[in-house]
Amino acid sequence: MRKKVTNILLLVLIQAISVSVFAAVEPTVPVIDVDEKVSEPLDSGLGWQLMKSLPMGKSGKSIHMVLINHSQYTDKTIYSAAINRLCRSEKEFCRIRFWSNKRFLPEKASMTPLQYKELKAEYTFNSAAGILQTQWSCSVDPDKSHCVEH
Q1: Which CA distances in Å does 60 have to 75, 93, 100?
Q2: 94: how many CB neighbours lie within 10 A of its CB?
Q3: pLDDT in tens, 113-147
């Protein structure tokens, strides 16, 4: 009889412990706010991500702000991949500015001197003006004949 009582008490104790342990574990399923607006993901590729596209005044044109992976910011093929992806359908105008540090991305098309200093490259295509150029920071391309010292 004592053995049965001991076994029953042991089972009750194990059950109480397991209930309290599992009750303390919170579900890991994320809560989704149904009123939250879902936006399309921004373009990105290996080593780069479009962070925002800012309007250029009332022209209807935009400047794309791209973040380059800091450990790869000297790899010009990453810039080329971003340019090809973002400008492939643009027949008249495309402008992209590149940074490797997110905190220097401007909130508007104009830049502060520090944001300009941290700019790694700027690509401009304007068919009306006959412009197709990429300006490099000297930290990306140290050749003084190709780079702009900020």
Answers
A1: 31, 10, 27
A2: 21
A3: 999 999 999 999 999 999 999 999 999 999 888 78
Domain residue ranges in the chain = 44-148
* Backbone CA torsion sign across 134, 138, 143, 147: positive
The Cα 100–Cα 82 span in angstroms is 13
CB neighbour class for 65 (10 Å; exposed up to 12, middle 13-18, buried from 19): buried
Backbone angles phi, psi at 63, to 5 degrees: -110, 125
Q: Where are the beta strands (DSSP E) in the chain?
A: 44-45, 48-55, 62-68, 93-99, 121-126, 131-137, 147-148
